[in-house]
Amino acid sequence: MRNGTITTFILLGLTDDPELQVLIFIFLFLTYTLSITGNLTIIILTFVDPHLKTPMYFFLKNFSFLEISFTSAIIPRYLYSITTGDNVITYNACVIQVFFTDLCGVSEFFLLAAMSYDRYVAICKPLHYVIIMSNSVCRILNICCWVAGLCIIIPPLSLGLNLKFCDSNIIDHFGCDVFPLVKISCSDTRFMEWTVIICAILTLTMTLTCVVLSYAYIIKTIFRFPSVQQRKKSYSTCSSHMIVVSITYGTCIFIYMNPTAKEKVTVNKVVSLLIFSISPTLNPFIYTLRNNQVKKAFEDSIKRIALLSTK
User: Fold this and answer.
1) Could you give the CA distance from residue 36 to residue 281 in angstroms, rounded to a whole number?
2) Intra-chain end-to-end CA distance of the chain, in Å
3) Of 65, 119, 213, 273, which is least surrounded by CB within 10 A?
4) Which phi and psi angles does 86 have, rounded to 5°?
5) How far apart are CA 156 and CA 148, in angstroms?
């Protein structure tokens, strides 16, 4: 976004109604607090509990870190705008917001693909799991997720840095996002729009292919288990991840694959709000409430804290 005559933007937010703004503030504050608390709890538990030193929880820890970074890039700024009435954001702050939300968002998809591969190895190749999913392999996969996310966002971001804004600096959104910025630009944005769509399709295609193939082999393997108990146990280790994958891919496909969604600004803003608030809040609870190991680690940590406090 070329820093020419326009050096600041005005974020319109979701509504001008003061009563609705209060409700939105309460809703976002609660969901953001729950999201940070839930994801931080997972990160802390994976550090302190020896039973959670496995590849599955290594990826879950990094996924929680991405969720915290993703929501923190935009929600606190919007809460500040509602509280103070200051809807002005500088050009540089807008660019930084776009960079971090896109980087964390795209990296999440690649991390979900890595997590599905981890579940594939755990269920389909249990005897070789420790060798295949070694600590070094897990770290390399995690780094690759960040690098892949960076490589995906560089082409549209570099094109976006050359956009000119001549007539309007009003962004019809609660944060800096690609399509609202493109809408107010006086540059020819057709090539950039196609670049964004191609990058989105590329990300979804690569990661979703990995997820679908992994779970196709997982389901095939589970059906071969002679014991019903074995099947239930194997399914329970994957069910949480499958729910999170469905929520994440469903919302993203709606925004980027539905042509009318880009035109329906209100619908787009509401869906974006759900992505930044509901999904990061639900994810830690989906993983913890359906996972006995995490629940036990949490209970053990509470007991240790209680013992220390009584001494």
Assistant:
1) 8
2) 58
3) 213
4) -90, 100
5) 14
SS3 category, 110: helix
**C-alpha dist (Å) from residue 199 to 43, 265, 274:** 30, 21, 22
Q: Does residue 65 sit in helix, strand or coil? A: helix
Q: Give the amino acid at 279.
A: S
Q: Which residues pair with 88 in a beta bridge?
A: 10
**The tokens of 103 are what?**
């980087």
Distance of alpha carbon 270 from its chain centroid, rounded?
16
- Whether residue 163 contacts residue 1, with contact meaning beta carbons closer than 8 Å, is answered with yes
Task: Report pLDDT for 250.
Answer: 77
Distance of CA 173 to the CA centre of its chain: 19
| Element of type H or E holding 82 | helix 75-84
Domains of the chain, start order: 9-305 (1.20.1070.10)
Query: Which DSSP helix (H) or strand (E) runs through 107?
Result: helix 91-124
The model's pTM is 0.86
Q: Which residues contact 218 (CB under 8 A, 6 or more apart)?
A: 119, 120, 123, 124, 234, 238
Strand partners, 9: 89
Percent residues over pLDDT 90 in the chain: 27
CA distance linking residue 145 with residue 149, whole number of Å: 6
- Give how far Cα 307 sits from Cα of 117, 303, 311, Å: 39, 6, 7
How crowded is the C-beta side of 106, counted as CA atoms within 13 Å?
26
Question: What CA–CA distance (Å, rounded) separates 311 from 307?
Answer: 7
The rounded Cα 68 to chain-centroid distance in angstroms is 8
CA distance 68 to 23: 23
Q: Tokens 């700024």 — which residue? A: 77
